């Protein structure tokens, strides 16, 4: 197989040129070959034929013409032919004469026509609202009805090359009722994604929702210059349109914005009233000014007529509130902008009151909920209750009536209930539904939740040639699923050149690449919300393969010569040469190539002048196929009648002559013979008679034939003999390996006989090698080894070709493009965790063998990294405990287990410390020799083998480690221990030591080990106090005596009791209904702080005690609301941590509340003011949700009067936005976001306001996109 790559070069290169704006530039190039495909590029982008660019190709000459040159054409250009590429530049200069300032553009929309000069950044003030410009109006003629617009000239400003804008909208002025256009231009040549433009008024008002009667937005794309033009057209401007505007342009991760102003001026009076004309005299016959009378009615009639005309011109009155009442909430903001309503909040309040006045539904007892949600494939029921059991209902879906379907939609009537059942919900059922009874309706929305989409059939690797069409195919689990295609991590989109095409057929998704180039090589990925698949595309240089070359011929006069060759490309043409001169066809010489890959040169009646060297050269390729035609001159000599037979072979000797034939080709042995009389010809194979013909033909030749019966059944019609007077031709059609051997031809007549042996060797492609073996498998590589084939096809094996594929795929990918001469190969660039198979071809001079059997499936995977944090947990005289952490890198195969080995210091013999694999991260090793120093190491094992070992820096000495005792002081003992008198105390102090210690408890140098204290000797030391008395209070010391030393602990204890009563109590004053008391603190506070006092009173008549004050912290109080004419006693209890004192202190004498003669005047109380500023009692909480699922924020607020609520997103008001629903119930505020997308993420603020102030709270919403 011969692979040839075409080489093309430029004999004339295009030169850089300069052009003037509006002029024409021409570039010319010439190639060394004719009819070569040439591409022209501008800044790396292919140029297509258009009104601006004209491309011509005539033979070897090629030209590019750039018409109407502009500043944007100032760039670097390329011309590409095959692998040759030349660069040149076009430099654009400003023209000497500028166009007139009054040139206007034409707008395809009549409503947007304006006479305003261009408001952009271009030096020429021309509005480019369409691709074709209108003819310019004269400078002194102003079109009728054209508003006066101030020209804002931007020619003197330097061009801003930073950002996305080529041309920014500029400030403008317009009269009331006039039109104006603002233009922004963006260069799209360097943008990955199509830019989008948004127009805003002020800081936040998006004008895309205001498009209508007075505002239009337009977008134009010029494919030649790759420039996007965005226009905003203001029609019949009003005074409230004046203000600041902003244009924002976004393209993927790039962003740019610019601000501009619009000024709207009052229009001047079109004509002034001619007062003198109004007061002209009428009725004068002589025509003098004094003749006739003054006509005052004419003036009045004129004014009345003007008013009538204005009323006729004015629009009919429209009830905006009726229009708002009937419109959906999403249209409120648009209607308000159209009719000049600026107070949106007041408008919504009025609409809310108007809707509250609507009557209660007469047809429905229970309506549909606002929204329902169901999983895809599940069933849902929509239920309403009607007042009339006999009422007929009608169900609508997106405004269309739902028809009964036994499989999908089922209608049910159960009493007052009307039920719509939807079976096997699909994405098509995600819609708005209505239930209609007469003229009444109730609405709801059904949201169908889609399950994760899985990739059921992955992508397959492909190897193609430049210019081929590539089609990636995958299959997902659901029809109609949304998938995303990526190349090397970058998302693919449908470009203007339609290089990538996306096709969907049910569950199958296709990515189609037309005319692949070398840049298309890479990894392509398809992603769904539940899976992904990766495939590799390799694009090779296109070459020409020669399947059959032309062969040398030796012919005699009047015979036919046929030169034939076969190439891989059907469209390749070529020329035939004889001795370097092109062959001219005629009646005797024919050249054929009819829609196939075979090229033929046929020469009938060969003559001696036809002898020479013949060549075939494919067009466009550096290739020359040649062969030689030898002319055999036949001389006629006189032969006597009795001439012995003779075989005339090329070799003079009669030894074996070997003839090589390719298996499957035709073998033709033409043996010249002579003899008189005509000899008998016998063909035979050694040890087997093949053919012996004996036939008397027209020439008088005698032939005999004998056939082996077995061979006859196998080769019937494949082997035959053709004989003439001077030749015997032995032919084998489609030579096979069994035809190889020594053939003998024998000619005999009465005058004698002659014999010759001919050796025929049949060569073929080699047998397929044995299945290759895989070894040394790594993370993304492996080593492939194989053995030579058993049969080499009769020729030397030149090398091998290796292919691989994924286990579940059917597409094989070639790994080597140069033939391998070794019997092993290291395959790389495989995906870890994917199962692969390998196969190998053997190649000799004939061609490639059939593929070998597939190797065993294998997975490229690397061992894990070494375990981490290997450490000794415990060691004794004969044991050691080791612990470690899993490896940092596990890989797709994970960890099957661990191997722990140890080695004595000074030796290199590693001994495994266990049998099999460990499935845990620790090990306890026994029966070790005391005093040895051992090295330990741990390996992680997976399917790829053991990892690198984790070792310790120092050896481990197998000897028990003597440690000091460890004592853990409980946290509650580090502070003062407070207990009540009489309570049981149990103090536990844990410690750790090998030998049991002795202990003692000491309080202030006195051992308190008595009958009411128990000290056990355990590993958890405890002090058990049967009864806590005051004598236990103080500093305690715990002594623990070990063999290795003594440890001490310190603790403090406080014992408290009930306090005593106050020392004394006295009545300091009594007036009206009040008594003032004072007392002194108690002498005994119960060893705890006094927390307060309890004051009680008792009527002398009943002596029933009632509590007046509790927890009084002062030592005085005033008892009020006593009854006149009664006598009272008072007593006081002391209170501390333990409780009230057991005995109170009481007054010795009673107090009499005297009666007075004055009238009781009840006190006046000022009414309490319940008003307060808003305050959030429960704030908003940050949320993180998955895109596509509804989310709701809730908070609670209080305030009087009831506050007004406003929801904000990133400081922008959400009122009137249909995507957001807001509820208020008993002070609980709720904001619901339907099907949020990543753009809905941000900071949400709830703001409450009333006359006394305002409050706000905020939270952050994070939207997660499912992977």
UniProtKB/TrEMBL annotation:
It comes from the Eukaryota. One of its GO terms (biological process) is cardiac atrium formation. The keyword DNA damage does not apply. Residues 106-125 have a biased composition (Polar residues). One of its GO terms (molecular function) is actin binding. Residues 768-864, 866-961, 1061-1156 form the Fibronectin type-III domain. SMART domains: FN3 (SM00060), IG (SM00409), IGc2 (SM00408). Residues 100-125 are annotated as: Disordered. One of its GO terms (cellular component) is myosin filament. Residues 362-437, 451-524, 645-759, 1174-1262 form the Ig-like domain. Keywords: Actin-binding, Cell adhesion, Immunoglobulin domain, Muscle protein, Repeat, Thick filament. PANTHER family: MYOSIN-BINDING PROTEIN C, CARDIAC-TYPE, TITIN. Belongs to the immunoglobulin superfamily. MyBP family. This is Myosin binding protein C3. It comes from Latimeria chalumnae (Coelacanth). The gene is MYBPC3.
